[in-house]
Predict the 3D structure of the following.
Amino acid sequence: MQTSAIHFALPVETPVGTFHARYSLAGLCGLDFPTKKTDKAEPPKAAEQVPGRVQHWHAKTSRALKESLAGKVPKSLPPLDLSAGSAFQQQVWAALLEIRFGQVRSYGEIAEALGKPKATRAVGTACGSNPVPVFVPCHRVLAAGGGLGGFSGGLDWKRRLLQLEGIALRESA
């Protein structure tokens, strides 16, 4: 497993709270949901210390996140650095990127698509380890029968993101 060092952690102010974006020298490598505790991300570095390309990526991240939270497909994303994941995690995350806005898949369907039909739980674990939720849309993966399953940002965020995409959930989900 290759690990990208996090060089920059910058806040993304949105109408629903402050997200924290983390960047390696290869791209966006982490995105944290707003929480009451803000100690998850390193303090932002002064703008003059942040290279121009990272500032550009951060502007793209901010725009894309605001578009997503408004229920729109982002026009463009910053480069994503998903190299910190295992080979299997990277396969799962690549499969998640294939799920289009407004669509869902089950953990089992992802496992089948990867040619590993018995790896449903491993797919769930990889989804839970997704470092860039929202942009690598693990929220679009549901449990068998349409249940919500889990979500690293919490089920309230999963429901909110799905509803923003027009995905109606069953009451029992």
